[in-house]
Every structure is written in structure tokens, then in C-alpha cells.
């Protein structure tokens, strides 16, 4: 994959966002998710749900670390870009699917959907623009 400052900037910031969300969800899911919507999401005492949320947070955190490494290790730039693209697009698409099936979420979730789709589509742009064999 061709190297560029724009691609490195994309990977750096998308990796930071993934790390921040992953760490918050893994280490403080009640506080992080409790701020969503007018009354928050009450996770108190729901151990099975907390376990699932923390697991997703760990995956998000690990993905963010790999994405950031792609800024500094050229051999991982392509892999990092694919991970960022797939992760953010899959979360955004799942939220859109959920909206169609389950109804309208809180404004914070809608904002997250827009951010995830934007980051994911930017990844598609970088994969197409900086591919080696055109």
C-alpha cells in the first residue's frame, strides 16, 4: 500500500478513537454507556450483558492498537486500513440495521453511527486511492 500523510493521519485518528471507545467500554462500561440517551443505559446487575459489552470493548481496543501500529510499521499499513474500514463500517451498518428493526435510538447513538460510517467510508477511499496495483 502506498504511503501518505493523509493515510497515516486517518489511521492515527481512527486508531485513537477505537482505543478510546474500546478502553471505555472494557474498563468502565456502566459509566460510558450510562451517558447515552436522556436516562442512560442501566447496566447495573446485568452480569451477562456486561460480559458481552466488555468483550466487544476488548476487541475494539485491540483493533485500535493494530490500527495505530499501521502508522509506524509499513508492512501493517494495508492490514490496519482494512481493519479500520471493516470495523467502523460493520458497527455503523449494524446500527443502521438495528434502527430499521428496533426503532430510533438516542441522539448519541445516531451521532456514533454517522461517525462510524464516515470513518469506514474514508477507509474505503484510502484502500482504493493508495492500492499498489492500479
Walkthrough of the structure:
The chain has five helices and no strands. With 134 residues, it is mainly α. The chain has one domain. Helix 1 runs antiparallel to helix 3 and helix 3 runs antiparallel to helix 4. The model has no long low-confidence stretch (mean pLDDT 91).
Distance between the termini: 11 Å
Please, what is the average pLDDT? 91
Helix content: over 70%
Number of strands: 0
| Number of domain units | 1
- Outline the low-pLDDT stretches: none
Silhouette? globular
- The assigned structural class equals mainly alpha
Q: What integer value in Å does the Rg equal?
A: 16 Å
* Annotation field: number of helices: 5
Order of helices and strands: HHHHH
Main β-sheet description: none
% residues in beta strands: under 5%
